[in-house]
Amino acid sequence: MATRHTTHQTDAMTETQSTHTQATDYDVVVIGAGPVGENVADRTRAAGLSTAVVESELVGGECSYWACMPSKALLRPVLAQADARRLPGLSASVQGPLDTAAVLARRDSFTSGWKDDGQVRWLEGTGADLYRGQGRLSGPRTVTVTGPDGRRSVLTARHAVAVCTGSRAQLPDLPGLDEVRPWTSREATSARSAPGRLVVVGGGVVAVEMACAWQALGSRVTVLVRGDGLLGRMEPFAGELVAEALTEAGADVRTGTSVKAVTRENGTVVVLTDTGDRIEADEILFATGRAPRTDDIGLETIGLEPGSWLDVDDSLRVTGHDWLYAVGDVNHRALLTHQGKYQARIAGAAIVTRAAGEPVQAEKWGAHTATADHAAVPQVVFTDPEAASVGLTLAEAEQAGHRVRAVDVDLSSVAGASLYGDGYRGRARMVIDLEEEIVRGVTLVGPGVGELIHAATVAVAGRVPVGRLWHAVPSYPTISEVWLRLLEAYRDA
Known about the structure:
By secondary structure, the chain is an alpha/beta fold. It has 3 domains: about 5-60 and about 115-170 and about 290-355, FAD/NAD(P)-binding domain (3-Layer(bba) Sandwich); about 175-290, FAD/NAD(P)-binding domain, CATH 3.50.50; about 385-490, Enolase-like, domain 1 (2-Layer Sandwich). About 30% of the residues lie in helices and about 25% in strands. Strands 1, 2, 3, 4, 5, 6 and 16 form a 7-stranded mixed beta sheet that branches. It has a 5-stranded antiparallel beta sheet with strand order 17-18-21-20-19, with helices on both faces. Strands 10-9-8-14 form a 4-stranded parallel beta sheet. It is globular and about 65 Å long. The N and C termini lie far apart (about 65 Å).
């Protein structure tokens, strides 16, 4: 067992000690203490492996402080108000604007004021050692940590190093962009007040969620989308319904539009588009993609390209390195917190199995499998209306060579939808493999559909035969009755 060096000990180091380099052996070293790294460490510690975790920012990572939690804290009042406004008897009571200051204060509580004390206590409660500082590979199975005070710690891993450093916002190559001080997802989720005018560049999840949030919190939002619609990785109708709702809420959604130049003049952001428009705003958010946070973790010392996505097998082990694992966003398989945590469970099982000298089985099923499956990746977009999907879209299934049929249902026809209030709008699609008679993918759009997607995930991940789904009876009156309507549409087609 390695000697423990907690954060408290590190903070107590004297100026003389800060220049000392100390070497410590562990079974496992984890770089990155977001949800993914935390889960890898939890699994390896539970199996009795000594584990060190290295974090350069806040324990809890992007999800806890700049992504999932603060963004959903911003959006929940927006969706609750939208739901209430659809209900006769309640709508008249909620016609005023949201209390922006109260929403932001509640958002702050979700991030614990951007302090990680609670997360640190949880991590150290697992028995893992936390090292604060920049962790860099310095050769095979070796990580050198440079702490905030300059102190260096060399950590060697007997069995595995897990890179769990996540991803960061990728900004476009526009001259002078640094001087504009653009927002990324971090600034959009942590802003202290609503800008009067906000330009959002992009049409993906971050773009539409933040456009929805800040429009409702008092900003005049303009969305600039290079492509022909929003949410391009979902079925086309998902983006269409979300764009329609954003427009009705007051946002200006412009498709087929790219930013040609952007400057800040006397505090005002000036955006020039390729369509010849000039747009003025107080802030501009670029939500135009993600890049791996692997540029400063020493990949060059083991023959890998700094700043690259890391290629892995289904046990999350990096190609060509039998001791190195890349878990979560850094392997580019699915840039979602829940999928990263799933991968962490798989990687943890693989590390523990190999540490015991046992082979990792190729079997994909079972609670302790060490092989990841990515056929059923669910996602929820917390806009009004919500959009949720899992598995393949119709186009993706056809491109993959499957013989499929898509069946569509208007969600407003489901009895449970009427309980959500007047004017419910939504749509559901199920993509069925005609040869195997299983569900390849499901997309749902409408208020409340985020809570339906796990049932769809079970159907896709479990490859449940369509014939058996007839016997999974949905409760009445809930919007889960859409499953029955989809099966009827398939039968009657």
